[in-house]
Amino acid sequence: MQLRTRKIEISPDHQATLAMLEAHNEAIRKIEDEKKQNEYLEDVLNEIPLRFRHKSFADFEIECTAQAEVIKIIESYANTFSDRLLEGSSIIFLGVPGTGKTLLAFILYQHLVKSGFRAEYQPSLHFLRLLQEKQFESYHAFGSLLKFYKELPLLIIDEVTEGSGKGAHPADWERHLLRMLIDARYQENRCTLVITNRSRKELIERLGEPTVDRLSEKGISLAFNWNSYRRK
């Protein structure tokens, strides 16, 4: 027995109605997406210290050629972040305290979030302790948090060379977690910005050469080698 297929014809009026409904639903989805993005942006801004909140590249004080060059590089990085994300380009900020490393990191952070990218700023000691707590809590809890940090388009880790070990060195467990996370982000082509008050030599000594190599392979190191703003 051969079945006959029946062609269903939709009238022009019905087609127009369906098109209007689809356009209406698309408009609602867009409004909901914008609402979620605005709520996320508000949450991010509320967590940023007042000293750095709502800062932009125009707020970074330029007094020498080196500062102008660093700003130029990071502003270009921010404006081409989609391309940087395809490459997995990371950044290392090096320099003594008070030279504007954290300020510039928060400027980049806010610029990207306002552009629709997900990002996170974390002091190294805080988020490593959180990872350790989740590791003791359960395999699932640890895996979920690690996945969250691994998939962020940009993760900023401040004071990455400071830890709970002797002489404020990262302890073995801290080095292990950092190496695991940075390697996982490297494999996923995620961008990582690490900040240290120490030299590149000390960075390698404290984190290990393999970890620093992962950050440097497709990235850039920027030296904030000018006087502290705090000494004025």
Topology:
Layout lengths: L11 H36 L17 H15 L1 H7 L3 E4 L6 H14 L4 E5 H14 L1 H13 L2 E5 L13 H16 L3 E6 L3 H8 L1 H9 L2 E4 L9
Helix pairs in contact: 2-4, 5-6, 5-7, 6-7, 7-9, 8-9
What is the overall number of helices? 9
The name CATH uses for the topology is Rossmann fold
What is the name of the CATH architecture?
A: 3-Layer(aba) Sandwich
Largest sheet, in brief, is: 5 strands, parallel
Provide the spatial order of strands within the biggest beta sheet: 2-3-4-1-5
Task: Tell me the β content.
Answer: 5-15%
Count of the separate structural domains: 1
Low-confidence stretches: none
* Helix content class: 55-70%
Instruction: Please provide the count of β strands.
Output: 5
Structural class: alpha/beta
CA(first)-CA(last) distance:
94 Å
Summarize the structure in words.
57% of the residues lie in helices and 10% in strands. It is of the alpha/beta class and 232 residues long. The chain has one domain (48-231): Rossmann fold. It has a 5-stranded parallel sheet, with helices on both faces. Strand 3 (154-158), helix 7 (172-187) and strand 4 (191-196) form a beta-alpha-beta unit. Helix 5 (124-137) runs antiparallel to helix 6.
